[in-house]
TrEMBL record:
GO MF: acyltransferase activity, transferring groups other than amino-acyl groups
The name this protein goes by in its record: Protein N-acetyltransferase, RimJ/RimL family
Pfam families: Acetyltransf_3
Family matches, as PANTHER family: GNAT FAMILY, PUTATIVE (AFU_ORTHOLOGUE AFUA_3G00765)-RELATED-RELATED (PTHR43792), N-ACETYLTRANSFERASE DOMAIN-CONTAINING PROTEIN (PTHR43792:SF1)
Organism: Bradyrhizobium yuanmingense
Keywords: Transferase
Limits of the N-acetyltransferase domain: 32-188
Region listing for Disordered, in residue ranges: 1-20
Length: 188
């Protein structure tokens, strides 16, 4: 595994590469600690999702009830797939945001995306690029996924640059939930 993400999990070497069983509950990057999403992260997620600027490219501000359902859905994803969303903290323990690798239907096709969202005070400091690199490494190397996508609102130039710096290639445009988005992809 590269320097970008160091995990506390181990591979099950008895399984074929495509079917490896990996549980990556916790990993670190140079400046962030990622921890598997849990119920006690609800308050941090509610605060993140209520910020209109943060939520502008996440489908809009979410109520606490919607965030609670989001948390339950993403915890179930972990149980089903062995990976999902992590909360992100700085080395001093401050909540910075969330990020993850998760299954998502795009135009009726099951894809696996990387996703990330940071509190505003962490914007413009390279945290998104750092976590995108780590998620890509985990997804392609440890989880042995054949490809990963990033879905970005057309107007979100910062996130598009993050994916491009992480070697994702622009694949196509589409519409999701009434919004114009672009799909970026990286393959094994």
């Amino acid at each position: 595994m590269s320097r970008s993400a160091r995990s506390d999990s181990s591979m099950n070497d008895d399984t074929p590469r495509k079917r490896r069983s990996v549980a990556v509950d916790h990993f670190t990057t140079d400046r962030l600690t990622a921890e598997r999403l849990r119920e006690d992260h609800l308050a941090d997620l509610v605060a993140l999702h209520r910020d209109a600027e943060v939520s502008r490219y996440l489908g809009g501000v979410r109520t606490p009830e919607v965030t609670r359902a989001y948390l339950a859905t993403n915890m179930a994803h972990w149980d089903q797939h062995g990976f999902g969303l992590w909360t992100l903290r700085t080395k001093d323990g401050a909540f910075a945001g969330r990020a993850g690798i998760r299954h998502i239907l795009v135009d009726d096709v099951d894809e696996v995306e990387i996703a990330y969202a940071f509190k505003r005070e962490f914007w413009g400091q390279g945290f998104a690029s750092e976590i995108a690199t780590a998620l890509t490494d985990l997804g392609l190397s440890q989880l042995a996924l054949p490809s990963l996508i990033g879905i970005v609102y057309v107007g979100n130039g910062a996130s598009r640059r993050v994916l491009e710096k992480s070697n994702y290639q622009l694949e196509r445009s589409t519409n999701r939930h009434g919004e114009d988005v672009v799909i970026y992809r990286i393959r094994q």
